Amino acid sequence: MVAGPTSIGPGKERLRLWIRLLRASRTIEAELRERLKKEFDTTLPRFDVMAALYRSPEGMLMSDLSRFLLVSNGNVTGIVDRLVSEGLVTRARRNGDRRTSMVRLTEEGSKSFAAIAAAHENWVGELLGTVSEDEARRLTGMLKSFRSNWEGRE
Amino acid sequence: MVAGPTSIGPGKERLRLWIRLLRASRTIEAELRERLKKEFDTTLPRFDVMAALYRSPEGMLMSDLSRFLLVSNGNVTGIVDRLVSEGLVTRARRNGDRRTSMVRLTEEGSKSFAAIAAAHENWVGELLGTVSEDEARRLTGMLKSFRSNWEGRE
DNA sequence: GGCGATTATTTCAAGCTTGAAGTTTCGTAA
DNA sequence: TTACGAAACTTCAAGCTTGAAATAATCGCC
């Protein structure tokens, strides 16, 4: 999804937009991935899961994580498995519904995430440095109105 | 990279923007991936490679593809391998420099891509339907000015 | 209570992705 | 011309990702 338009037609500007959008996010994502690896020896998916859990001290179900992060159930299983084996999160079986388990950050996971998140925010600020805060607000607004047509779909 | 901000600070709007950007592109990408699979039994990476080759009838080197698509060399090798085995592209050894090979769409690959690309453009038009062509132009402009600071970096 | 449908999760195969290490070929300088 | 460093590419291990199939527990209806 990174190639240029191959024809010109009515949706031309939208196709251009999509290609720009994709190239921008891929570029930023690649840079963040690399820094996470180099500076903290972790990955973006692990960071995503930890970020979600950090916002929910009470914990999240696997399916909550899957829905929130926009990835499949099976995917979350693997990432959480690795985080558990690293001692960063726990899976607690629940009495109420034994099909589910509550996933939470450990003390260590929480400390670890806080440090990474601080660096992460700085990196994003740096990488988007050429976008003014005001412009960022406007762009966000446009993207938000688009997203609202898709949020929570299917 | 899909979680919300975990702190409020100077780069707050940029972080918000990044999260929106990422969620938007993930959502669109997931939808396109699914349709490519269902309708044409292909994948996004294959589509990307074919799109690049379609623009270059004279062919591209593996490293050209890698650079253009923003993915690693080894990655391109695997995708091209699969396209070759499907008869959609060819790898032609070159007399000039025998380290390299020219990758080209086959006749079948070219026909196949044209059909997929038409559907793809319609899908993008549909998925970005809530963004007016004019708004699309403005958004693209903003993203372009951002990208120019990164294009061809490192 | 029993049982079929539903829900939550895991498992699995196939493919994508990277970064590092390995192979082959090229260019060039002694 | 030979040797060495660079360039183009492939191979590989590890991890991410999906979608489909399997497992297990719960729910609702009789």
Overall description:
The first copy, chain A, is mostly helical. Chain A has a domain at 42-147: Winged helix-like DNA-binding domain superfamily/Winged helix DNA-binding domain (Arc Repressor Mutant, subunit A, Orthogonal Bundle), CATH 1.10.10.10. In chain A, 63% of the residues lie in helices and 6% in strands. Chain A is built from 6 helices and 2 strands; from the N terminus they run ααααββαα. The first copy, chain A, has helices at residues 12-40, 44-54, 62-69, 73-85, 107-127, 133-147; strands at 89-93, 101-105. A two-stranded antiparallel sheet of chain A has the order 1-2. Chain A is globular and about 55 Å long. The mean pLDDT of chain A is 87. At the A-B interface, α1, α2, α5 and α6 of A face α1, α2, α5 and α6 of B. Chain A binds a DNA duplex (30 and 30 nucleotides) through α1 and α4.
